[in-house]
Design goal:
Layout: E1 12-19, H1 30-45, E2 54-58, H2 65-72, E3 79-83, H3 89-102, E4 108-116, H4 156-171, H5 175-190, H6 203-208, E5 211-213, E6 216-217, E7 226-235, H7 236-239, E8 247-255, H8 275-287, E9 296-298, H9 304-313, H10 322-326, H11 345-348, H12 355-366, E10 378-382, E11 389-396
Parallel strand pairs: 2-3, 2-4, 9-10
Antiparallel strand pairs: 1-7, 1-8, 4-7, 5-6, 8-11, 10-11
Helix pairs in contact: 5-9
Length: 397
């Protein structure tokens, strides 16, 4: 059988990265933070803001094209698009941006995410205007949320608790295994000056943290922070002349349609039909490599249990084997089976809808991470294994 065509293979590269400081409540607007991150990405790449001619954003991003144009000045924005949801968008924005470059629709594309997600960082009544979205749910709901919010499935914590418990019942996943995910990422965060959470963690401390939604404890959940991240993608030809080592887009894939109420019924269909599993099949086939070729991986870690599940969905281990895979330092940057989330991830560095993980993936390809994986050539990035979602493979030139 012929190898599937790879429409994105090495046709676009990430050449600029930028971010703000991360904190629990920075007291800054999302536009202010987005501006800093975008200009930092331009400076990192050695490109003027006026050279940007494409833009891809999360469809829930509050900083829209008009505001970005006021920041960039006199530009000819000839491609702009949005991609769905929060966690799923972490990789999907890269797929869409790389597609635009491969199709010749743009030469230099900006992707970004700015979030005021700290507990006290709300700046409006809408659910997407900072703070805790579940504290702003209206009295009447017209979306599929109306089928589960009235029954107590209000936030992702509660939705994911059900999924986590199902995985535990089916496969015997333990508190120790979830703790080992949190501990590994905290160890990485301790080496990262940008990380919000840098105190050491033990299994005992993890188990002693308060219950949020059984069986998920505080240290199983992502932290609430403010911050912004931005990346610039361009053509391979242009990337060769810029100042940074480019992170080439080896392959990318997206999928939607495996469940209709996002997290709440992840197990409603066969494992093989889940969106993340579909993404993995397409990704590995297009790239022509397998999970064992990945040097460093970045999973959407807004819960420890989701990392365990994603390892199985993307083929890094067999179904039901994720818990054993992460045990006893399985995800550590040194000595682990698969170094993961070497920045500390969303569990310990910051929660910017996965974009901080993508920036760290670029650093790994460049060789500049504070927990650098020796000889890292291939980096895997997954969006939230919700619906819709996506994943991307980066490689060193």
């Amino acid at each position: 059988m012929a190898k599937p065509a790879n429409p994105l293979g090495d046709r676009a590269a990430i050449v600029g990265i930028g971010q703000t400081a991360f904190g629990r409540s920075l007291g800054r607007s999302e536009l202010d933070m987005a501006s800093e991150a975008i200009l930092a990405a331009c400076a990192d790449a050695g490109l003027k803001p006026g050279s940007i001619d494409g833009l891809v954003r999360y469809d829930m991003e509050q900083i829209d094209e008009e505001q970005i144009l006021s920041l960039l000045g006199n530009v000819d924005l000839r491609f702009f698009a949005g991609t769905g949801w929060g966690g799923g968008g972490a990789a999907s924005v890269l797929v869409v941006a790389a597609t635009a470059i491969a199709a010749g629709m743009a030469e230099t594309v900006l992707v970004y995410r700015s979030r005021a997600r700290g507990k006290a960082s709300g700046y409006g009544r809408l659910a997407n205007q900072g703070g805790r979205y579940w504290e702003k749910i209206p009295a009447r709901l017209s979306t599929p949320n109306k089928w589960h919010v009235p029954h107590g499935l209000v936030s992702a914590f509660q939705e994911m608790a059900m999924i986590s418990m199902r995985h535990r019942i089916d496969y015997g996943t333990t508190d120790d295994q979830w703790a080992d995910v949190a501990i590994a990422f905290r160890e990485h965060a301790r080496r990262n000056p940008n990380a919000v959470m840098r105190e050491a963690m033990s299994r005992e401390q993890h188990h002693a943290s308060r219950m949020i939604a059984e069986p998920l404890r505080l240290f199983d959940c992502n932290i609430e922070t403010d911050g912004a991240c931005a990346l610039l993608l361009t053509t391979l030809e242009r990337a060769r002349d810029l100042r940074q080592t480019p992170a080439l887009i080896l392959a990318g894939a997206m999928s939607a349609g495996s469940h209709h109420i996002r997290l709440a019924n992840l197990f409603a269909r066969p494992f093989e039909e889940e969106s993340a599993v579909r993404v993995g099949r397409r990704l590995w086939a297009e790239a022509g490599i397998a999970p064992q070729h990945v040097d460093v991986a970045f999973f959407y870690d807004f819960f420890t249990s989701l990392v365990v599940i994603a390892l199985e969905q993307y083929g890094f281990c067999g179904r039901g084997e994720g818990g054993a895979f992460v045990e006893n330092g399985g995800l550590l940057w040194q000595g682990g089976r698969l170094p993961c989330n070497t920045n500390g991830g969303q569990l310990s560095e910051a929660f910017v809808h996965g974009f901080n993980n993508t920036i760290e993936a670029v650093r790994q390809i460049r060789g500049t991470s504070t927990s650098q994986v020796e000889g890292a050539e291939i980096a895997f990035i997954a969006g939230g294994n919700t619906d819709p979602t996506g994943a991307v493979l980066l490689r060193r030139r």
